[in-house]
Amino acid sequence: MHRYHFVIIFSICCIGLGIYLRYTAVTNTIVKNPFMADAGEYVSYAYNLRYHSIFSIQLPKFDNNQHYQPIPDAIRSPGYPFFLSIFVDQFPNSTVLDRILTAQLIISILTIIIALLFYIYMLPKPFAILSALLVSVSPHLISMTTYVLTETLFTFLMLIYTCTLVVFVEKPKTLTMFLSGITLGIANSIRSSPKYLPVILIFFFITHYGKKKGIYYFTIMLLGFWLVCIPWIIRNIVSVKAIGDPRLQISFLTHAMYPDFKYNNDPKTFGFPYKFDPRYPEIAQSTISALKEIVNRFMREPFVYFKWYLCKKPIVFWSWNSIQGAGDVFIYPVKASPYFDQTIFYYTHQLMKYIHWPIVFLACIGSLWVWFPLQLPSSRHQDLIIRLISLILIYFTLLHMIGAPFPRYSIPIRPFLYSMAMYTLFKLKTIQKKFKAA
User: Fold this and answer.
1) Is the pLDDT higher at 430 or at 364?
2) Is the separation of the CB atoms in 254 and 244 below 8 Å?
3) CA 368 to CA 85: how far, in whole Å?
4) What 3-state DSSP class applies to 181?
5) Which of 10, 55, 247, 295 gives a 20 to 30 Å CA spacing to 282?
6) Rounded CA separation 317/297 (Å)
7) Residue 61 or 248, more confident
8) How far is it, in rounded angstroms, from Cα 4 to Cα 164?
9) Residue 385 near residue 128 (C-beta atoms within 8 A)
10) How far apart are CA 375 and CA 365, in angstroms?
């Protein structure tokens, strides 16, 4: 059989396995309270958008007051609530939940397919299929499909964004870069974590396209990005008299300023140390007060805080278990899951857990390796994409070293982690062959 046929067969098997695992997880997982915490807030926004055309976290009210109007706010990013508003045509119930999870199931399957095509472009076929297989069986990516949370949609959009960069690298065009910026803007509307990504990408553009062209392409991408963001800013100025609500940013900075996620090193406070800090209301008054507190803590205990921020936070960010969650790959507690009683789920879970840290280590090596010119000729388009992947991984790691490094936040960039790990394996194999040949 021709090698091309093997690639097709293995690709189909990889996608088929991913479809089976996701479909089974969505149809057999029972979340105890699917609309709790963040999920409940997103659904409230969606309901208010659909029936009142107002972006508000306020819980829907059902009474005889026909003039009820929720109070607008800007606490959450708007993208995911707008997505949910397609399905929330009544007060959240099992029917609404089924619609949302079915949509996320489709998006998660498309993510596997797009990831596979992306990997085939940037890696030799065996390593590309292996990367896609890791996406297919990843318990974290599968588990997130069963929750009304942003991760599944955000993962998909970040991959789409990277694919637009692939098209641009193949044939640089202004329109492609503009569309790339729009895609990143849409991803940013789901979760605001990529909002500073263009700043780090300017380094890539100048390095590979020269100062003049690099700044030009960067500016075009920024225009597309802001085309999506500006309407939201204008809405906020009109509705809430501010560019945005700082509360999430303050939480992002302060919830993880406690070493090892503990208040006064007390194990009972693990995961939620700020709830036990009597000074927290004072610290969280503003972004300035939060930053001042962090600086003061560094001054008082420099070794402890440098160790926490520079060494421990990256490890926590890429760790396996959720911290502010139900543990393992679960965010909210579940009554039933195929990971509890189905063989294929058990073995894929154990395999991924076993190889998790080796994958993280390989990806870390690869993310640095790609920037050594002697190891990587920058003329090849695939190599440019690999460098972009390394920048994405570095950016998100640095971002969460500054703020909250909850492992949940690393889930949407696991597809990039897997591809970088496989790239490192490919380079190591190439070096091994050279040594044998010598």
Assistant:
1) 364
2) no
3) 42
4) helix
5) 55
6) 21
7) 248
8) 26
9) no
10) 13
AA letter at 258: Y
Measuring CA to CA, which residue among 139, 345, 4, 124 is closest to residue 12? 4
Residue keyed to tokens 């949940």:
408
Strand intervals (E) in 388-437: none
Q: Do 182 and 194 touch, CB atoms closer than 8 A? A: no
Q: Which residues of 75-89 are buried (b: 16+ CB within 10 A; e: fewer)?
A: ebbbbbbbbbbebbe
Q: Which residue has the tokens 């998909």?
A: 156
Mean pLDDT score of the chain = 88
Residue 181 has pLDDT above 90, yes or no: yes
Q: What DSSP state is assigned to residue 32?
A: S
pTM for the complete prediction?
0.92
Cβ within 8 Å of residue 384, ≥6 positions away: 169, 204, 208, 378
Element (H, E) at 324: none
**Residue 211 has what pLDDT?**
85
Amino acid at 126: P
Helix or strand or coil: residue 321?
coil
The model's confidence at residue 381, banded by pLDDT at 50, 70 and 90, is: confident
d(CA 45, CA 70): 10
User: How many angstroms from the chain centroid is the CA of residue 429?
Assistant: 30
